[in-house]
Each structure stands twice: as C-alpha cells, then as structure tokens.
Write a structure and sequence with these properties.
Helices cover 79% and strands 0% of the residues. The protein is flat and about 45 Å long. The chain is an all-alpha fold.
Length: 107
C-alpha cells in the first residue's frame, strides 16, 4: 500500500510541481523533525530502509499539502477527474504487475 501512496504522490507532483526552494526546504525541515521523533519512539534499532521511510513519509505529506494548497483538492483528490484517473491507473497497473510477478515466482 505504501508504494501506491508514493505513486499517487508522484502523479500529483508531476501535475503541480513548484520549484520554490522554500517549499522543499520547509518540507525537509518538517520531515527531519518528525523523523527524529519517530526514530526516538521506535524503541528498537531500524535498518536503513526503515529509517528512510520514516523520513520520506513526512516529507511527502508536507510537500503534498504545500503543492495542493488552494487548488480545490478534496482530501487527497484533485478536482480534475483526469488527474484522479491517472493516479488510479498508475496504482492499478502497479498492483497488477506485483500480482503477476507473484504468480510467476510461485510457479
């Protein structure tokens, strides 16, 4: 499911990218603060992939909210149906590819 979240984020990023350094630096700063809190509360050593995810999730959330602010989004859904459809198609293709790969591996 996390991969579908990332794919949805990337679809929105493609449509609403903003090159403003302030947006990205603020997202990095917020992500670092939240990441530190998550790491301190993890209660156990984490591998590098888990640590990266702890950083990436808050980064994507904060930058997503900055990118879509004032653009008429309903929760995480664009007011433009084509963008919603693009996100759904990307996620469905990914899920289908994973399912096919799982079937091939089990044979």
């Amino acid at each position: 499911m996390l991969w579908c979240y990332l794919l949805w984020y990337l679809v929105v990023l493609v449509h609403y990218f903003d090159a403003s350094p302030r947006l990205w630096l603020t997202s990095l700063g917020l992500s670092a603060i939240v990441d530190l809190a998550l790491l301190l509360n993890a209660g156990r050593p984490l591998n590098r992939w888990q640590m990266f995810r702890f950083f990436l999730m808050p980064f994507c959330v904060s930058s997503f909210s900055a990118l879509v602010k004032g653009r008429g989004f309903l929760l995480v859904f664009s007011p433009r149906w084509g963008e919603v459809a693009a996100g759904l198609v990307v996620c469905l293709v990914f899920v289908a590819a994973v399912a096919l790969a799982g079937r091939s591996a089990s044979r």
